[in-house]
Amino acid sequence: MKKILLLFVFVLCSFYGFSQNALYGVRAGYNISNLDFKPDPTGFENKHRNGFAIGFFGEYKLTNSLSIAPEIQFSAEGAKEESIRIDYIQLPIFFKFKLTDRFAVGLGPLASLKGHDYQDGLQNLAFSGLGGIEYLLSDEFFIDFRYSYGLTNIFDDETGLDAINTNMQIGVGLKF
């Protein structure tokens, strides 16, 4: 019990220390996503899907020019074909490098958990690489552009299909 209490106090102190250099916020975005098949699919036309994303983030300053920004967001991705539309609950971890007072670039991993039918031939968990740019319009408002490229096959092994998710996202957000 003492070890758990000590760990709890340590975690609270860590949050307090990080909160001195922390921002929180919300962001929403417009998605343009598609699937990259290998080989090309037969039986349907592979067209992009337009969707949206919405989520919450925290941004913790590590140095004057480097910060880490974990998020949780909902993102509508996949392709236009109804059977391969995928809605995700995503956990991106963005490492942001501040180039100027208003402009930052970022890279990081992205884990996605499918948010609907789990027995549909699509993987329930997917991983991607994420890159993006951010421009601060004011101290609170920003616009950003992100691109994610899938690292895992979105189909279950039994289907015999191989495809990865790609997504461009144009977003706006508010930091507080």
Describe the structure.
With 176 residues, this protein is mainly beta. The protein has a single domain, classed as Beta Barrel (Porin). Helix content is 10%, strand content 59%. The chain contains one helix and eight strands; from the N terminus they run αββββββββ. The protein has one helix spanning 2-19, and strands spanning 22-37, 49-61, 66-78, 85-98, 103-114, 125-136, 141-150, 163-175. It has an eight-stranded antiparallel barrel with strand order 1-2-3-4-5-6-7-8. Strand 4 (85-98) and strand 5 (103-114) form a beta hairpin. The longest helix is centred in the N-terminal third of the chain and has 18 residues, at 2-19. The chain starts with a helix and ends with a strand. The mean pLDDT is 88.
Quick structural overview:
This protein has 176 residues and is mostly beta strands.
Kindly list the characteristics that best describe this protein.
176 residues, Porin, 8-stranded antiparallel barrel, 8 strands, elongated
